[in-house]
Amino acid sequence: MEEQMKLMINMLKERIKHNLQIIKKNEAEIRGILTQPVSNKRSEILKEMFHTNRILLDENQDSLAIELQIINFIVKFKRTLKHQANNVQSTKFIENSNTISKADAINEEQPDKQEQDDTQEQVDAHEELDLLSLTVMGNLPYNQSHPLFNDEDFFEDLMESFKQLENYEMCSEILRVKGRR
Question: Quick one: which of 31, 89, 111, 170 has the most CB atoms within 10 Å?
Fold first, then answer.
């Protein structure tokens, strides 16, 4: 599934590049048209070309938003798989243990600590994903006051998100802010 999503991201990137080529071609034509004398025909052609460029830019913006959503899903999917793998290992360990102490039997009536931890991990992962989205979209600056500035996993996810978006300037900025450059 992850490979299919990465394929979709690449298809979106190719579409964006194609749209940008058309926009650049249109801009070159617009420059040529602007050298012509002012007329109604010229104004109509310019209006149509500007409209075409606006549509292509809007499509690119939508494509970038979809890319970001897919990247965030992939990050969340990887975390979910890690979490499930940890739960499977914990379950196997518990199944292999055949001894139950009196304290364990008494605690059975109380909420299971593991269940509470699992629920908290799911909430934390969701909150972290929200913070990742806000940071990638530029709504939450990544600096020393960022809530997850010292979280290495978050840092790696953030770098991966910007790499997938081919926003290498932000990768450089993040490295600079972290003092790794």
Answer: 170
